[in-house]
Amino acid sequence: MSSVIIDQRLKELVQILSGERGNAQARAVRLKELNGILSGMANGTVKVAATDAALNSGLSKTISEAQGLINEAKEAADQARQAAQVVSDDLEQSSAATSDRVRQLTERAEDEIDQANLDNLSQTFTSSFRQDTLKSQFSLLRTELKSEVAGVRATLTQDYLTAANTAESIVSAKREFVTTMSQSVGCLKDAFLNSEDANNWVRVGAQGDLTKEPGETFIVGTDWTFDLASGEIDGIRTDTSADQWVGALNADAYALEILFTLNSGSLNGALATIDWQVSGASHKAGLNFADGLSGPLTIGQQMRISAIVQRPSGISGTITKNVLTVLVNGSDGSVSPSLAPSAKNITLHEVSLRPATAEEQGGGLVDARVTQETNARSQADLALADDITSLTATLNSTTSSVSSNASAIADLEGNAQALVSFRAKAGSSGALLELVAQSNPSGSVSVARIAAVNILLDGSVYAQHLAAKSVTADKMNVGTLSAITATIGVLRTATTGARMEIRDNKISVYDSANTLRVVIGDLS
User: Fold this and answer.
1) Rg of the chain (C-alpha set)
2) Which intervals of the chain form a coiled coil (predicted)?
C-alpha cells in the first residue's frame, strides 16, 4: 500500500472518529484499526531504518542483499496495512484527547511514511551508497584496467617489434642474397641502382629532370626516371676506382645488360660505352640502345639490352681504368651510327656488367629468341583478340627478325577492324605484307599492302580497278603494239592552239588560231 493510500485512510479514520464521538463502540473499533496501522507503520519504520543503516554502511552488502532489505520493507508495509483491520481496545480516552492524539499520530505517520517511501529509499540508495560504491569499484577497476592495458600494450609492442625485426631481417637477407648473387657473376655491387655517390653511380650531364622511386621489378633497387627535352644530356657513370666495382679490370670484353623502360619519346641518343683508359687516354667501344634490343621496341614495356662490348684493338700501354657510361640522352663518337639526343621519358631499372666468356667473345652479341603474346579481352562495350609472334636472331651487329601480328576488334557502336601483318627484316632490308579490313556505320574499307624491293606475282593477275595515272609510260615495256588492243578515243598534243589530234578514224592538224589545216582519214 502506497503512502498516499495510507495517508488517505488515516484521514478517513480521523473524520470517522470525530463524527462518532457519541458512539463509543464504533469509536473503539476505529481506534483499534488506527492503532494497528500505527503499530504496523512503526514496525515498518524499524525495518526501513535497519535497511537504511545496512545500505549506508555498505561494507559487505551487495546489490542483491540491498534488494532483499527493500523487499522486507515492502513486507512491513503490507503488515501495516493488515494491522489496520484490528480494532483498538482503548475506549477510555476523551474525544478531545482522542482528536489531538489522532492528529499527532497522523502527522507522525506522514513523516514515517515519507521515510518509508520506497521511491525515496531507492533514490537514497542510488544517490549515496550506490554512487560511493560504484566510484570505489570504478576506481579499482580503472586501476586494474590501466595495468592490464599497459601489459597488453607492452605485449603488442614487443610483438610488433619482433614482427618488424623479422620482416626487416627477411628483406635484409633477400637484399644480401640478390646483391651477393649479382656480385658473384658481375663487376658491380650496385647493379640495381640503389646509390648515387662517388663510390657507386655518378650522374653525368644532369640536364634533365630525374625522379627516383623504389624499384618494382626487384626486391631491392631504385628506378631512375629521366625526363628529357631534345638535346638535353643525362645519364650515369661508374668506374673501376669506385668501391662498387668488384670485378675484373681490363677484360678483353664485357657482357653488358641494361633493363629499361621507354615511357615516351624516341630512343635516339640512348647509348652505353665502356672505356679502357691508359693514363687518362680513352679507348671506347659501345652501342646504341636500339642496336642491343633483341626484338621490336615497345613503349611503356620493360626492355633488355644484351651486348658483348669488345676491347678496341691497337691499345698500347697499361690499362689503368675502365669506365662504364650509360647515357639515356647524349652522343659519343665511339658509337655508330650517331643519333641526335631526342625528347624522351625513360626509366633505368638495372645495369649489370661482367667479363664475357670465351664463347661470347668469339660471337660478339649472340642472341636468338622466340616471343609470343596472345591476348583476348571482352568487356561490356568492346571485344578484342590479338596474337603477336616474333622470331629474332642476332650475331654481333647483324640481326634478322620475322614478326606476325593478327588482331580483331569489335565494339557496341558498330565499329569492327581486322588486321593481319607479316614483317621480315634482315639487316637493312625488309619486306611487308599487311591486310586490313574496317567497317563502321558509315561504310567499310579494306586494304592490302605489299612492300618489298621486288614483288613477284606468279600466275595471272587481274585488276578490276586502276587509279588514274597509277600506270605511267615508263612502267610499260611492250614489244609490239599489237599486244595492246583498245579503242583509242581522242589523243591530242594540246587542248587548244597548234596541235594534232588522233581519233579512231582520222588524224587532224590545227594551227595556232585553232583552224583545221590537215585531215587524213574520214573526211566527212
Assistant:
1) 56
2) 63-119
Q: Give CA–CA dist 346/361, Å, rounded.
A: 30
**Direct distance between the N- and C-terminal alpha carbons of the chain, in angstroms, rounded to an integer:** 148
| CATH code for the part of the protein at 187-364 | 2.60.120.260
If we measure between CA atoms, which residue out of 102, 134, 112, 130 comes closest to residue 45? 112
**Which cell goes with 113?**
511514511
- Determine the Cα–Cα distance for residues 331 and 210; give it in Å rounded to an integer: 19
Q: b/e per residue, 476-497, with b = 16+ CB within 10 A?
A: eeeeeeeeeeeeeeeeeeeeee
Against a cut of 0.90, is the pTM above it? no
Q: Contact at 8 Å (CB) between 331 and 228?
A: no
- Which of these, 280, 298, 282, lies nearest to 290 by C-alpha position? 298
Which residues neighbour 308 within 8 Å (Cβ) at sequence distance 6 or greater? 253, 254, 255, 256, 356, 360, 361, 363, 364, 365, 366
**Residues of the chain where predicted confidence (pLDDT) is lower than 70:** 1-185, 219, 362-375, 377, 380, 395-397, 473, 478-486
DSSP type of residue 473: G
Q: Which residue has the cell 596472345?
A: 374
In this predicted model, what pLDDT tens digit does every residue of 68-81 receive, in sequence order?
555 655 565 555 55
CA atoms within 13 A on the CB side of 244: 26
The domains of the chain are located at: 3-116, 187-364, 366-462, 471-524
Segment 268-306, tens digit of pLDDT: 999 999 999 998 889 999 999 999 888 889 999 999 998
| Three-class SS state of 153 | helix
* Ramachandran assignment for 422, one of left (phi > 0), alpha (psi -120 to 50 degrees), beta (any other): beta
